[in-house]
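tool=predict chain=A
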Amino acid sequence: MVCQDKDLLRELGVDFDYMYVDLLEDHEQDTVLNEIERWNPKGSFPTLVIREKKSIVGFREEEIREALKE
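tool=predict ok
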């Protein structure tokens, strides 16, 4: 599986945290899913949260690049 979102963020020199939610313990997974649903009610992945202001669901390169300029 190619992680285009991580590759793009590395290319742009952006510091980021990335979690494999399915590998978390149950209580940790619940906490993370609740946070994700705050930004993305469908709870789908990947969900990128940029500067606690904007979320982007899925790999949308141009949208990610634009949001990082703001």
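The helical segments are 4-11, 26-39, 61-69. The CA atoms of residues 1 and 7 lie 12 Å apart.
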